[in-house]
Amino acid sequence: MSSKLLASLKLSQLKHAAFLTGLPSAGTKADVTAVLESNISTRTPVQTSTRIVSVDMGIRNLAYCVLDVPTPSLSHASSTKPSPLKVLEWKRIDLLHPSAIEPQKPPTSSDTQVKHSTKKPAPIPASAFTPSNLSHTALSLSRTLLSHAPTTILIERQRFRSGGGPAIQEWTVRVNMLEAMLWACLTTLRQTSSLDRTLSRTEAGSGAGAGEFPAVFEVLPARVAGFWVGEPGVSLRMTAETFTSPSLEGRRIDPGALTGVSSSSGRKRVQKKDKVAVVRSWLDENKGNGKGNGNGDGNPDVSLVFSGEAAKIAKAFAAPNGRSSSSRGTIEEGKGVMEESEERMGKRDDLADCLLQAVAWVRWGENRDMLAMLLRS
């Protein structure tokens, strides 16, 4: 039944469905249909709440957020307002800081004085980026991410080149190395935990075991950016009326937009400020008071609630810029403490990227569930 319905759709409609569900939209009608069938037809909607840890890769500026997603439903297809997503953590850390990913005590007055010192930080030794040292960093990061008890971990997929240039930058190599090590650590920990659960069940003589290891996925940043930054007025939710509109021009899924390169259609590349603006649109309604509803162009129905230190980050994020976005932020890395945050937030794009990635993953899942329901009906 689903194959017949998909076959009846035009290529532009199929590409729009792939776009709304976070799936590849390039290729012929047969290609896009095959992608949709393999990812949608066998999908079983999740019936329990989930916790997502979304990572924007970096070494000096790694950002991640922890997002609690309520029990999913198809209420977004009706007029009922969906439950808000709860942001429990939202931070940027420097992995080269000795205590960036370790539990910390509250800062003392002497810590604050050191922080505001005008002295330049000590230079980073080249040995910090060797495999022997980065491997320890990757393992500590893995344990930190797992300490939040997620059901899903999203890792930003790194590029090998920037701006399409022929050269591969040194920092790109370093971050790619850390990314590979993070995947290796998580995979090893998964296998180890699986073995431990098997042994525990055998010794206990029952089917009870420890909690399941979180699922880990890679996410293309260009696909996230192309989803949130595009033509105004285009609904990002799958509904029963999605394929009955008079026309689907597909401008939101222009390949040039997804790769960050200008195309013949005149689409401009997605810039960092565009992504920051989307997150700010989610916070603007309540001026960063801990809740935000995305009513900006092309970003409807995004409802967020921030708690703890994440609420302070949200308040600082929504505040006017105090200095250039390329300058260093004023977040005490690894301690979750904000000093002068409302006046000077500093670098926002990394924080924006991890949150955009997490919310996009939730929306893609909702749209896939809706599409699966439409195919079954």
From TrEMBL:
This is Mitochondrial resolvase Ydc2 catalytic domain-containing protein. Residues 330-346 have a biased composition (Basic and acidic residues). Residues 99-129, 254-274, 283-302, 320-346 are annotated as: Disordered. One of its GO terms (molecular function) is crossed form four-way junction DNA binding. Gene3D superfamilies: Ribonuclease H-like superfamily/Ribonuclease H. Residues 52-369 form the Mitochondrial resolvase Ydc2 catalytic domain. GO terms for cellular component: mitochondrion. It comes from the Eukaryota.
